[in-house]
Amino acid sequence: MADLVIVDTNVLRAGNTGTYRAVTFGEAISAGQGVYQSSTDQKYYLTDANDSAAPANTGQAAIAVSTASTDQQGVIARGNAIVQLGAGVMTPGTVYVISSANAGGIAPSVDLAIGAELTIVGYAQTDELLNLTFDATGITKA
């Protein structure tokens, strides 16, 4: 398997639960990508489980639910939110993590590469609904 193929126009809030915030993106971000908040400028950037400069393990990981360019406002979703990613995108019951293959990617947990930081994004409630649990475990996959 590989990273989820998410079409940004299919990404929607699914209900009123969870945490959604308006933030400023520090680079171009598409809805459905994994992001983190930089401690330097407080903006959000693409996260990567393999890159300590784009840490997935900060506890500030989120999913973008809107698309925006550099220095524009966007919306992110964090814990306990449910995000619709589009029909047929996921396998129900699968746990998803911040990808080690592509910055901003989300992948099934079995695809996390050795040496990558394990940041659990959540689980597929259905083939299109991702229930966000975000857990920056601090564990490096062996």
Write out key terms for the chains shown.
single chain; 142 residues; mainly beta; five-stranded antiparallel β-sheet; globular
In words, what does this structure look like?
The structure is a single chain. This protein is mainly β. It has strands at 12-13, 20-24, 34-37, 44-46, 62-64, 73-77, 82-84, 95-98, 106-108, 117-124, 129-140. The chain has a six-stranded antiparallel beta sheet with strand order 1-7-11-10-8-9, with no helix packed on it. The radius of gyration is 13 Å and the shape is globular.
Summarize the structure.
The chain is an all-beta fold. It has no helices and 11 strands.
Fold topology:
Blueprint: E1 12-13, E2 20-24, E3 34-37, E4 44-46, E5 62-64, E6 73-77, E7 82-84, E8 95-98, E9 106-108, E10 117-124, E11 129-140
Antiparallel strand pairs: 1-7, 2-6, 3-4, 3-5, 5-6, 7-11, 8-9, 8-10, 10-11
Average the pLDDT over all residues and give the rounded result: 91
The major β-sheet equals: 6 strands, antiparallel
List segments where confidence is low: pLDDT < 50 over at least 5 consecutive residues.
none
Which radius of gyration do the C-alpha atoms yield?
A: 13 Å
Number of contiguous helices? 0
